[in-house]
Design brief:
Number of strands: 2
Distance between the termini: 121 Å
Oligomer: single chain
Number of helices: 3
Shape: elongated
Radius of gyration: 44 Å
Structural class: mainly alpha
């Protein structure tokens, strides 16, 4: 009887050991495979996000281009180009022509006022003392 119990215990122990060994082998095989799958899934998700961002950017560019095309096809663009390139005007508009002196050099610093004469624009510059005088005594 004792021999039968020992034999049964050995068989059960052997089966448990084989089962545990089989589980360890299965885990050893599946863990690297799941890591590879997870890494591929992460790369795919990252690429999807990048492509969505690119699609959004392209949609914005397309919208801007459509708006530009609409403006270029509009009557306002035609009117603007006629004014700029052909010097045309509407019937209810008035045009003011200011002729400039060709020998005149425009300076962009310290320009305070423009005085319009009949034929040219004269730029008047105030010196530093005049500026301070106006600041304190004229309330400018």
């Amino acid at each position: 009887m004792q021999k039968k119990k020992n034999k049964i215990n050995k068989i059960i122990l052997f089966q448990v050991l084989i089962t545990i060994l089989g589980l360890i082998i299965i885990v050893a095989i599946t863990v690297p495979l799941t890591n590879k799958v997870a890494l591929k899934q992460h790369r795919i998700n990252k690429e999807i996000i990048e492509l969505q961002n690119e699609a959004d950017r392209l949609e914005g560019t397309e919208k801007e281009l459509r708006e530009t095309i609409e403006y270029l096809e509009s009557n306002q663009f035609t009117i603007d180009q006629a004014r700029v390139n052909l010097n045309l005007k509407n019937k209810d508009e008035e045009v003011v022509v200011i002729k400039s002196n060709k020998n005149y050099k425009e300076e962009k610093t310290d320009i305070n006022r423009y005085e319009i004469n009949k034929e040219k624009v004269i730029i008047r510059k105030d010196n530093n003392l005049d500026k301070w005088w106006k600041y304190f005594f004229n309330g400018a």
